[in-house]
Specification:
The longest helix is centred in the first third of the chain and has 14 residues. By secondary structure, this protein is α/β, with parallel strands linked by helices. It has one domain: Rossmann fold (3-Layer(aba) Sandwich). Strands 4, 5, 8, 9, 10 and 11 form a six-stranded parallel beta sheet that branches. The protein has a three-stranded antiparallel beta sheet with strand order 1-2-3. It has a two-stranded antiparallel sheet with strand order 6-7. The protein has four helices and eleven strands. The protein is globular.
Length: 187
């Protein structure tokens, strides 16, 4: 039987969802946006983000291997631009990769990001939009930035479905909304 959890109601791109609150460290809970399998929400978010970035020059979308992959795919279809997924595990077929370290709020552990050798030319000398589902601590975003810089790309925008935490810190992010952090019980 599933544990009953508190939720946080939110409307994103005209779609209503109840996000489950999960404790990620003692006394700190986050509202988890899990877009995997939620095609209605992914499509709505891709259309809304496409409108928000329509005047931004870019050649490629870059995301990290995680829940943001379906968003990157849908946004690429919506805009007609390619996307790259930075992988979390190195595989020999990836060849000469570019690598960066990050720590995710949801795992709390160091993670690696790798740019596959086949994708270097899609970033080198190109304009890039970094894309994530939720930007909370900014560590994944920082890892993506490091890789784009190492690959000699130029970041023209950073986008996400939602930002989380200190809203003033994320004013430059193109997003569809913002989530608070929960330090006390939410009813």
């Amino acid at each position: 039987m599933a544990t009953e959890r508190n939720t946080y109601p939110i409307e994103i791109a005209g779609i209503y969802r109840e996000l489950t609150l999960i404790e990620v460290q003692p006394g700190l809970r986050i509202a988890v946006l899990n877009i995997l399998g939620d095609t209605e929400l992914v499509q709505a978010c891709a259309k809304a983000l496409a409108q928000k970035i329509k005047n931004t020059e870019y050649d490629v979308l870059v995301t990290a291997e995680a829940k943001s992959i379906p968003l990157a795919h849908a946004l690429a279809v919506e805009t007609g631009q390619p996307y790259i997924v930075l992988r979390k595990v190195y595989r020999p077929y990836m060849g000469d990769t570019i690598h960066a370290e990050t720590v995710s709020i949801t795992t709390g552990k160091p993670q690696s990001l790798y740019l596959d050798e086949k994708d270097h030319n899609l970033i080198t000398g190109k304009k890039v939009i970094l894309l994530d589902d939720v930007i909370s601590t900014g560590s994944t975003l920082e890892g993506m930035k490091q890789i784009v810089q190492k690959a000699n790309g130029t970041i023209t925008a950073e986008a996400a479905i939602l930002t989380e935490g200190d809203q003033a810190r994320w004013e430059h992010i193109v997003s569809l909304g913002h989530l608070p952090l929960f330090t006390t019980d939410y009813d």
